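Weekly puzzle thread! Below is a chain. First person to post its structure in token form gets bragging rights.
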Amino acid sequence: MTLNSEIVKYKINTLPVNERVQDLLSRMTVEEKFWQLFMIPGDLSDGKENYKNGIFGFQVDAKGSSENEAEQILDYSEGSSAEDTAKLINKIQKYFVEETRLGIPIIPFDEVLHGLIRKGATVFPQAIGLAATWNIELMREVSQAIAKETKSRGIRQVLSPVLNIARDVRWGRTEETYGEDPYLTTCMAQAFVESFEENNIITTPKHFAANVGDGGRDSYPIHHNDRLFEEIYFPAFKACIEKSGSRSIMTAYNSVDGRQCTANDWLLNQKLKQDWNFEGFVITDAGAVGGADVLHNTASGFEDATVQSFTNGLDVIFQTAYQHYPLFITAFTKGLIDENRIDDAVSRVLKAKFELGLFENPYVDPAEAKVLNNCKEHRELSKRAALESIVLLKNENKILPVKRDVSSIAVIGSDAIEARLGGYSGPGNNPVSILHGIKSKIGNSCNIKYSKGCTRNLVDFTAIPEEYFFHDLDGIKQEGLIGEYFNNIKLDGNPEITRIDMNIDFRWTLFSPDPDKINFDYFSARWTGKIKSPETGCYKIGVDGDDGYRVYIDGELIIDNWRKQTYQTIVKDFYFEKDREYDVKVEFYESSGNVKFKLIWNIGVENNYSSEIDEAVKVSKECDYTIVCVGIEEGEFRDRALLNLPGNQEELILKIAELGKPVVVILIGGSAITMGSWINSVDGLLDVWYSGDEGGNAIADVFFGDYNPAGRLPITFPIHEGQLPLYYNHKPTGRGDDYDNLSGKPLFPFGFGLSYSSFLYEDMEFNKEELLEGEKLEISFNLTNIGEHDGDEVVQLYIKDVLASVARPVKELKGFKRVHLLKGKSKRISFILKYEEFSLLNEQMEKVVEPGDFRILIGASSSDIRLRKILRVK
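Winning reply:
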């Protein structure tokens, strides 16, 4: 191929990739290089001339680009069909390949945590639910299905999986993980990654290397030592790169030992690129390069943050809009970044684009996308995954399975009809609710009655809507309040800015009211104007937010909280007359940053939870059997200080349980739940996670005995938040591990799960009593289904180093198998452990196998050990 009679090597597909990369790189301007390192959501609808220099890639939404950045990044519920998305991506690729100077294709990217997050894609159980299957082969089938749907639309990079270890279940993103154990996480992650990389789709494990800090809080600073990283937080990342072929990795928002992950030389250059020989590219989480300036205070501005990030190993900036590029490009055009470092980053991206075959064939067949997305086979697979993910936590008096001759069943709870899919989900394809699944299963033979009971969220107050605020300007009534902002905390002098705020409902978590003019952490504000009420009566009005503040109505000081202490809600009674205009003044100051501030009232708020619970109790009383569906609220930037069921759901359970009838509770959520106030009042308990498109049908199969549940917990359920962090593979305490007023043991341990059947473990044998270097140990035992139902058992293999030079975990998961057995049948189960699987990091952080004794532990959970035998390692 030629360009102006010159041979263009990068267009010759028979040449080695590296040679093509170097040829293309030599032809690129600084601006073109920058744009190959800039990824955003988009689709050219903001003007294709903006992208004449190319771009790394788009997160494409077939609706067209939104002016709302958050909608593009965080709202995955809308969009066009798979076929339309494929057509759009083809159109975008055609522009870049045929109309830009160098013809460099883009990498369309998206999220696929448990299914592509777009309309028409099959939704599988949430990641934590997939981990609860303890079935690697099933995970491989699921990820193959997701990969096929993804590639059919032209998407060639996925920002998945999440490999962070969920050691503190207060973290709102626990649902996105594979749990608390590095071995289980690594097994599941490798199966996921291999399916995509085999289909030539780039995987991007995240968030490197830990995304949850003290208190289970998202993106909090990390202060782990090298040993903890190597033993717990690195293994899954390392395995996905070295063994499964991940070609990209995403950094975390937080800092590690004082350095932000986006500009951390130890993490990105030394550990990832040098020690692990990672040849792919490193991307940020959305907006994280700017976050180095805004949050960590380790860079003087975006330009400095860009220099620091690329110098310390970053390759690609992930931003939320095209308009952000001027913040970062100057670091390139001013020559502030070493040219070799820029070329290295660009080479990594170009290498990926060549490997993907995008230069030769950037297009896909839209008809294939239409056929593959939500096909019958994938929906059936989603149901199988849901079935295998369900964990039976309690089954007193064999309340489950339910006999089909039951005459009436009460189904209670909003979660019974919502069919929630969990975080990072698309809209689903007619997801089946629990109520629908039960009705479909049992037909007309049983009287099914439904009652909402109560919602997960108690809404006592609401931010006062903007239609009730106005002000006078030169005698003319205008909407909103006059807001005056001061760069001091005393409302002194003239305001720095004066503007119209439509209401008082602000969250200045990452910035000030006006970043160009107002201090982030030291300012005050005054809002003045008029307020009117749509109702007559005595209502409550006040503030939900950070102190200090004062509220005046008609000149009367009704709330005086002019001090800095804590976030709280303070309301006072006030008698309103409908449509009467009241003068209102609200004053506020902030001296440390991080603000959430709302002027609230309870006008128009209908809180009928008592009557709703009463109605649910009535419905339950009329039926022979009750299913109560309850759930939690969680997600990104939604960490939970309290792990109990939110709202009045616990009261709902207790009042129904008081009837003395059979009650089964279904838990919907992606993390642990405390249940000390009610667990002993119910007979049955199922954790179904977020179970995907076919969840309701799968749950019905379990309820009526068409499927015997065998899911196992990938996280520890504590009795109380005060035990956290709590995980099974801790190291010896050196003394006791109990509290004076509470046990140190969990409510439900890692690996726990019941069955409708019972299994006998016996006759454990080794193929050798001593293990030498280079040898393998074979462990075998008999497993017998001694119960009344066919079913699966998840057998788990743990080891314990009896005596070591450094403290080792009390037990470590080293193997597991999900085994199906007919009732009365037996099977010989075997595990193979290699010599190196008994290794540790010694005091010098060298990986060695120390001679000595190891306990080999076989059981049904981390606490339920059925067989034990000593192995001597030489």
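Puzzle host: Confirmed. Bonus trivia for everyone else. The CA atoms of residues 30 and 332 lie 7 Å apart.
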